[in-house]
Amino acid sequence: MWRPHVAVLVVACVASAAGAGYYMHVRDARTFEAEENPEADALKKAYGPSRHSYAVEEWAIRDFFRDKRDGVFVDVGANHYKIASNTYYLETALHWSGIAVEPLTQFEADYKAHRPRTRFRAFFVGDVSNEAAKLYVLDKNTLVSSADRLFTEKQGKAPQAVEVPTITLNDLLDSEGVKTFDLLSLDIELWEPKALAGFDIDRFQPQLVCVEAHPQVRQQILDYFARHGYGLVGKYLRADINNLYFTPLK
Prior knowledge:
The chain is of the alpha/beta class. Helices cover 28% and strands 24% of the residues. The chain is globular, with a radius of gyration of 17 Å. The model is unreliable at 1-7 and 14-32 (pLDDT under 50).
């Protein structure tokens, strides 16, 4: 199986491996960029200055894979086809292909028009399939849509409740005929542990997982990857304060 030819520090995910030191608070990415951040600056120098992802995710992913071409991604919580996308550059510049999983169907037309190598699937990923979940959505900011109403309300008033169909990652990947893939990007606003509970990572073995890790669910995320033999990619801990990056330890 292909592994990246890049020097990275990988640390085992034990106890509070990243929680206490690096991630006491998740701050706005633009605020963090204005502060002194040599790790982020190094990524920006190598792969920037422009990007499509919200923060440094695109640069970190490119760095890990060394701009590998023709990879395969699964982008869960994909949202807009280009704005704040972790996978737009991979497809349009590096010829990657993959699946964009996003319950808000208003984004589907643009994926079909602008992302021909991406299959758009309108599901909410969780620990069960074939049920209906309530997603709380703000009219003017769909980037923070969540199944946790309080989480969405912190970003704006009076979110709309939308019923969306659920699916597990296992069922989705099996239905799409996916046996293994390179990158899993997971950003579903506090529902990441639920999505991971429905994912047999030992079977699919992605080489890199980029997962948003809010303080409320960070320990659950760390525990999941520790159980499955994945370690944190240490070189991105300071560069990206909002996400954790995991790779197999063996």
